[in-house]
Amino acid sequence: MKIILSLLVGLCSWASLLAQSGLPFFSMDDSTAVFYFYKDDFELEKRADTLGHFQRYIPVLMGDVDHNYLGNFGSAHYPLLYQQRYREGFDLGFHNYDGYLITKEEVPFYNSRKPYSDASYNAASQEDAFIQAKFSQNFSRRANIFLSYKRANHKGSFTNQQVVNSNYTFSAWYRSPNDEYKAFVSYAGNTIKNRNNGGIENDTLLENQIYAGRRDLIPVRIENSQTEYTHNEFSVSQYWNPFSKVEKRVRFVVDTLPLLDSTVVETDSAFAARLVKRKIPPRAMSDTPKIPESSFLHHELTVKREKLKFFDTHPTDNADYYGIYYVNALGLRNLVRVNQIKNHFSARLFLGNKEGSSYFRIEPGLSYAFSWIYQEPAKTFYFNDLRLRAKMRTKIKEYVRFDAETHFALASGVGDYLVKADLNIDLKKFGKVVGGISQQQYSPALLQERLIVSGVHVWDLDWLKPLETQMYVRYRHEQLKGELEARFQNLNRWIYNDTLSLPAQAQSGISIGQFMASKEVEFGKFHWENKVALQLISSDLLALPKFWWRSSVFYENILFKDNLQLRTGLDIRYNTNFYGNAYIPVASQFYLQTSQKLTFYPIVDPFIAIKVKQFKAFLKVENISQIAFQKSYLAAPNYPGRDWLLKFSIAWSFMD
Question: How far is CA 493 from CA 128, 324, 465, 470, in A?
Answer without folding.
Answer: 42, 25, 7, 15
